[in-house]
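INTERNAL AUDIT FORM
Audit reference: QA-55
Scope: verify that the stored structure record matches its stored sequence.
Auditor: D.O.
Record contents follow.
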Amino acid sequence: MSHVLLAALLVASSTATAQVTGEATPPPAPAEAAPAPAPADATQAPAATQAPAAEGAEPVTRDDLEAARQELRGEIRAEAAKQSLSGDEWSEEYPEETRKLEVFQLDGYFRLRPTLFYKFDLGKAPTRSIFPGSSNRYGENTQSFATMRLRLDPTFNVSEQVKIKLQVDGLDNLVFGSTPDTLNPLDQRNIFNIFSEDQESLGDTLSDSIKLRRAYGEVNTPVGILRFGRMGSQWGLGMLRNDGNCFDCDFGDTVDRIQFVTEPFAGWYVTPMLDFNAEGGTYSGGSEGEPVDLTQADDAHSWVIAIARRDTDAQIRSKLENNQGVLQYGLHFAYRTQAYDQAKNTEGQTTSGFVPRDASLYIPDLWLRYEERNWRLEFEFAAILGNIGNRAITVGESALDQSLKVAQFGGVAQGEVKLAQNKLSLGLELGFASGDKAPGFGNLQRKRGSNTDGSTAPGDVDGPQYRCDNTGCADNAIRNFRFNRDYRVDLILWRELLGGITDAFYIRPSVKYTVAPGIDIYGRVIYSQAIYAESTPSYTSKALGVEANAGVDYTTEDGFIAGVAYGILFPMKGLQEFAPELRRDLETPQTVRGWLGIKF
């Protein structure tokens, strides 16, 4: 850069030379000197006279300036020669971008969640408890434990345009103290667990302490972004499709997908996708051979298109800071088909036979969000429509040729208002999931009901939502919509007892206050009611319960997270037993959840 400066000085000196006369030139006045006042009459102004030179100053002649100019030219030539010896002169100012590329980036979190459950059996007999994790010991009211997870989301930047992204879970939801050395049959040191002091046992290995959950490639092209591999699936509020990447999530939708993200217009994204939902039978080809899909007839594939109008995070911040509204919306549509399916035996084990399936599903999912600086409205509505041409599971049932209809609907509406300089937040959420009059909620559709044919009977908590036998179908429709299990609205009823929102609607007002930067306290109340009374354990009442939650969150700028939450559920008649001889006064379940974590 020095030669550029010298060139500028040379130009300045040339300009000064052009202004020099043959006589001595006076020195300039100081920059802060005020201009002399103009005379009263410009026509009477005296002729310009030259100010005398400052005392003791030597006059600058043309020869002096010419000598200075020659000296500057020599310095420029020397600088240019130096640059030519060191290579390209632009290398100093514009280093190659590849030098700044981070080949490896690592994101993720580590979490620890101590938890306490109290009376989650609702006071029912052990065999009648709604909570699947209840102890078999009657009268044991308290369960306390702690789980942990290390999640790593590494990115390998092959170049600025080509990336490989992974998701790896270590000790995924491992219960503290659940892998003592006594689980290792090869370790004969201890016979009683009371003597165990080592958690690095064979049991830890058998529980898949390190799990590669996702791996996919990403390529930036001039016309869009290509992604291919096993990746997470997320849309809208996460009511139906949820990638499970939140700090408190436990599940997450993982799909085998090829997708291409395009932006034909600014802010408009069009993404075609192909999902491989199920490939059916495969042949491994030996211990090291390439596996082969035996037939395409039993494949279940989804053709997906997502069209969305969205702003970037930076655009959203800019609009909100300038008191502008932000409108975002989109449609996610999937068409899924399957011609045949692998047959199973009466024990549910896969056989080499096939049954006709002739199934197709249409899954639209609409999402809309509008927000301003102090308030927000957000909606999501989805449907699953279609039919299953043949509901057969075993080869023998395929001859019955019994079809099932699928008609499911679900939606969420959220509203939020911020007050007191955005420290106070008031929220309201409404949600519904269509139901089915078949007994049981239908979250676990592979669970056998209490009837001899495996169908559900009054009083069952879960099971299939259709009923067919050799004589025909008494119920040939599956109508209960199921929310994603990682879409959480409470701490007890839907999250733990019933395992997910279905066949119900709920109302959830909430409040949150920021006490200090990084410290939030919150509270919420959730009222839940079934769509059909026949779906509840009582078979006669829709009311499920009122739950209250309260908690505090603490986060720091360097990634530390901590918090605690308390929940209490007041169960209603819908959770009571159907059989009069089994009815008891329902007890009030409570929970305390804590969490410690580090995000990076």
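Auditor finding: record pair retrieved intact. The longest strand covers residues 350-372.
Action required: none
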